[in-house]
Amino acid sequence: MADDLPSEFDVIVIGTGLPESIIAAACSRSGQRVLHVDSRSYYGGNWASFSFSGLLSWIMEYQENSDIVNESPAWQEQILLNEEAIALSKLDKTIQHVEVFCYASQDMHEGVEEAGALQKNHSPMTSANSTEAANSACLPTEDESLSTVSGEVLTEQTPGSALEVNDVEVTRVKESGRDKTCMLSTSKEGTSENVPIEEDIAKQPKKNRITYSQIVKEGRKFNIDLVSKLLYSRGLLIDLLIKSNVSHYAEFKNITRILAFREGRVEQVPCSRADVFNSKQLTMVEKRMLMKFLTFCMEYEKHPDEYKAYEEITFSEYLKTQKLTPNLQHFVLHSIAMTSKTTSSTIDGLKATRKFLHCLGRYGNTPFLFPLYGQGELPQCFCRMCAVFGGIYCLRHSVQCLVVDKESRKCKAIIDQFGQRIISKHFLVEDSYFSENTCSHVQYRQISRAVLITDRSVLQADSDQQISILTVPAEEPGTSAVRVIELCSSTMTCMKGTYLVHLTCTSSKTAREDLEPVVQKLFIPYTEMEMENEVEKPRLLWALYFNMRDSSDINRNSYNDLPSNVYVCSGPDCGLGNDNAVKQAETLFQQICPNEDFCPPPPNPEDIVLDGDSLQPGTSESSVVPEANSETPKESANLWKPEEHSE
């Protein structure tokens, strides 16, 4: 491997998270020679998605104590007298307090395997005591690497248009010139077996006894994200996907419902004007109040007299001055603005409400999209773009150290696991790769995460294919509200008859301590006794809790003695959207490639001129370059403009 790798690049990127993948794609697109390496065996780092058995293998990596591998000090012999080394960490410490609970019937039979799984040799990291670790946490010993599925084009939806393909309502957006076109598409080759068929769903019994062995056997139907996020329809990431044409590599689905948790009950929140008018939860007076307030929020900056006097108070207190009922105050604060009751200012709340309303109507009646097959598809989409323009990728390829020139204080090379020295001008390193010595002065926050598999939705509806977001307010001082995202099988993230539920909040304790009270409010553990009787709450089949490091917004000066040409990329933050990752990627790209366009559209195939005629038709490089159009698309009507709404 080492002999085949070039010895010099323009940019070396260590880590394959979303910010690093965007930067690598942008640099490759601008003509830089890019090497993208990751010591892990999967793309995405803490942004990754796993099948069920892949997630179990990931869990074992963090539960075992055999992660540290004794490395040969041979690389130290390559450091010259006029050089010094910044050793990189061999152990990922971004995940802590991993706890797994299985509530489904554990009738595991020996030899039960994930359907279609390939037999692989375990890596040294996961082979030791893997059987014992699996038994202790009800985990099978099969190992499964991340399944990569390419996607399709993101196509902007005109109001009222919906696409149903095999009972999957998929939002796919392509912006061509100034026109908006809804493009029909069938399922991709190789993925048709994962697409729910309408007849199969109709035949499925309402009361289904789901066992742990079923979950393992259908494990490839799961795509479980380590980080739970959604895409704002007018957010920075959607704009970047469309601009760069990376949207060709993914498919997206609308979030169908915004939910609220109040007085122990889950309720649906009306978002658009039509939802408000059709709502049976609100009185006519409340509908008028909500309409008036949300219309004001869309253009609040034009009416400073309405909020200037309240800038010093919290948004929660400001809502009380607006003659909104407690019911409406709760909806606006927790389900529309999604801001903190105690820390968010009036301006923060108004901005968040306007952002929510501004995103309505672009692709559906909610502001959010979710990528089919999970959030982990997004880093891979940008990895594909980087590879199209010549970037080189190496997974399971660890970097021992950064080599720094003592005189110039610039990083000049890396030394990899094979002892090869690879020279570069710029180095981007994901935060988790730095050693404790480098990060001794860094103060990290933590994110509490839970992943649940349940048997039905938190709010039953006519259709069982609902994608929902719910905010559960904090009850105790010093704690955070918990964000709940519930995914159905049509998102290609879980098997039919189950739901995949993600819980996220800023940590105050361990993940289980932070999130278990919310889990107990919304779900009940699966038991055979309760299976015989109807219960109000969904049954909990399986649960995973863990804490993840939040390295966003860390000042670069907090790291010890980093050379000026070494750039730090953070891991996922606790926010709902991906704006932080895109802003970070663009900022770092401009430092590496000043005055270059950030992720411009690729050229049209007919505009590419190849050197010579050696490439055969159908195999040319241009055949893998997706189309793009740099013109600004015509925006769809916003659902909160009165003149564009008809009753």
UniProtKB/TrEMBL annotation:
<feature type="domain" description="RAE1/2">
    <location>
        <begin position="447"/>
        <end position="574"/>
    </location>
</feature>
<dbReference type="GO" id="GO:0005092">
    <property type="term" value="F:GDP-dissociation inhibitor activity"/>
</dbReference>
<feature type="region of interest" description="Disordered">
    <location>
        <begin position="596"/>
        <end position="647"/>
    </location>
</feature>
<dbReference type="GO" id="GO:0006886">
    <property type="term" value="P:intracellular protein transport"/>
</dbReference>
<keyword id="KW-0963">Cytoplasm</keyword>
<dbReference type="InterPro" id="IPR018203">
    <property type="entry name" value="GDP_dissociation_inhibitor"/>
</dbReference>
<dbReference type="GO" id="GO:0005968">
    <property type="term" value="C:Rab-protein geranylgeranyltransferase complex"/>
</dbReference>
<protein>
    <recommendedName>
        <fullName>Rab proteins geranylgeranyltransferase component A</fullName>
    </recommendedName>
</protein>
<dbReference type="Pfam" id="PF00996">
    <property type="entry name" value="GDI"/>
</dbReference>
<comment type="function">
    <text>Substrate-binding subunit of the Rab geranylgeranyltransferase (GGTase) complex. Binds unprenylated Rab proteins and presents the substrate peptide to the catalytic component B composed of RABGGTA and RABGGTB, and remains bound to it after the geranylgeranyl transfer reaction. The component A is thought to be regenerated by transferring its prenylated Rab back to the donor membrane.</text>
</comment>
<feature type="compositionally biased region" description="Low complexity">
    <location>
        <begin position="126"/>
        <end position="137"/>
    </location>
</feature>
<dbReference type="GO" id="GO:0007264">
    <property type="term" value="P:small GTPase-mediated signal transduction"/>
</dbReference>
<dbReference type="GO" id="GO:0005634">
    <property type="term" value="C:nucleus"/>
</dbReference>
<dbReference type="GO" id="GO:0005096">
    <property type="term" value="F:GTPase activator activity"/>
</dbReference>
<feature type="region of interest" description="Disordered">
    <location>
        <begin position="121"/>
        <end position="142"/>
    </location>
</feature>
<keyword id="KW-0343">GTPase activation</keyword>
<dbReference type="InterPro" id="IPR036188">
    <property type="entry name" value="FAD/NAD-bd_sf"/>
</dbReference>
<dbReference type="Pfam" id="PF22603">
    <property type="entry name" value="RAE1_2_domI_C"/>
</dbReference>
<dbReference type="GO" id="GO:0005829">
    <property type="term" value="C:cytosol"/>
</dbReference>
<comment type="function">
    <text>Substrate-binding subunit (component A) of the Rab geranylgeranyltransferase (GGTase) complex. Binds unprenylated Rab proteins and presents the substrate peptide to the catalytic component B. The component A is thought to be regenerated by transferring its prenylated Rab back to the donor membrane.</text>
</comment>
<comment type="similarity">
    <text>Belongs to the Rab GDI family.</text>
</comment>
<dbReference type="InterPro" id="IPR001738">
    <property type="entry name" value="Rab_escort"/>
</dbReference>
<dbReference type="GO" id="GO:0016192">
    <property type="term" value="P:vesicle-mediated transport"/>
</dbReference>
<dbReference type="InterPro" id="IPR054420">
    <property type="entry name" value="RAE1_2_domI_C"/>
</dbReference>
